[in-house]
Design goal:
Elements: E1 4-5, E2 11-12, E3 15-25, E4 35-50, E5 55-60, H1 74-85, E6 92-98, E7 129-135, H2 141-146, H3 154-173, H4 176-182, H5 189-192, H6 199-208, E8 213-216, E9 223-227, H7 230-246, E10 251-259, E11 264-265
Helix pairs in contact: 3-4
């Protein structure tokens, strides 16, 4: 564990603060198996060990929407599990979760409070940037999963697997044209897009403005465009936000390069 400074200025060796970035899960065709991290938005978690023998939780920035029960909140539940698995139940911990990511946004607001255990890093074209737009509509992950098909046809599966393979190859070869051609989802996007007003209008607009590819971020309702430059990301994020506003939907916009570092100790 790392250390953080106490209010007195001295290092507190029983405390660590970690920042965890938002994500774009799936990258269109790689449902539940591919994703990339952002530089922002990101959450922060501070864990301070103590001798209380129990885990306590403090949350700021969520507007009172997140569960405060220790076993229901993923941040505190993971700390409790860690203490149990390492046979340190005699210790206690105070968890302070600072939520900077919009909830139910599709940008990993749940996964940013814990860490995925097994990930394989791929190379990628370093110049790529992302434009992200979060419409202010409610599409909980659980609800968006309910509408997915439980069975798919072999032709659909073959097409999807081919696109996933092409996407991996495109990143490894740093071939943006191949990346763009592979960012096609024939299974999940046609269903999930129905929950996002103006989805295909935004997709057409983003592609006309030069996006490499466009899709739903995670389970939505956020959408993203993969762009050749930061300037393109700014331009596309602005255009998509203006479109949503024109149909009566407020939205937040973000831009980010691809974050190869992921979660880090502050």
């Amino acid at each position: 564990m790392g250390t953080s400074s106490s209010p007195s200025g001295k290092n507190d060796e029983r405390s660590v603060t970690v920042t965890a970035p938002g994500t774009v899960a799936n990258i269109v065709c790689g449902y539940d198996v591919m994703g990339l991290a952002l530089h922002e938005p990101c959450d922060e978690v501070t864990v301070t060990l103590n001798d209380s023998g129990r885990v306590t939780l403090e949350i700021t920035g969520d507007g009172g929407l997140l569960p405060t029960d220790i076993d229901s909140n993923v941040a505190s539940a993971m700390v409790k599990l860690f203490l149990e698995r390492t046979d340190r139940t005699n210790l206690g911990a105070h968890v302070h979760l600072r939520k900077n990511m919009p909830l139910n946004s599709g940008m990993g607001s749940s996964s940013a409070s814990t860490v995925p255990l097994d990930a394989v890093e791929l190379p990628y074209p370093e110049h790529l940037h992302l434009a992200l737009v979060h419409p202010h509509i409610d599409v909980p992950t659980r609800e968006s999963r309910k509408i997915l098909k439980s069975r798919i046809s072999i032709p659909e599966a073959v097409t999807q697997w081919g696109n996933v393979a092409g996407l991996v190859a495109g990143f490894c070869k740093k071939d943006t044209a191949l990346i763009g051609r592979s960012m096609t989802d024939v299974i999940f996007e046609p269903v999930r897009s129905m929950l996002i007003p103006g989805f295909y209008e935004m997709k057409i607009k983003a592609m006309e403005l030069g996006a490499v590819g466009f899709g739903i971020s995670g389970s939505g309702p956020s959408v993203f465009a993969l762009c050749e430059s930061e300037a393109d990301a700014v331009k596309i994020a602005e255009a998509l936000t203006d479109f949503l506003n024109s149909i009566g939907i407020d939205a937040d916009k973000f831009k980010s390069g691809i974050n190869a570092e992921g979660a880090r100790i502050l």
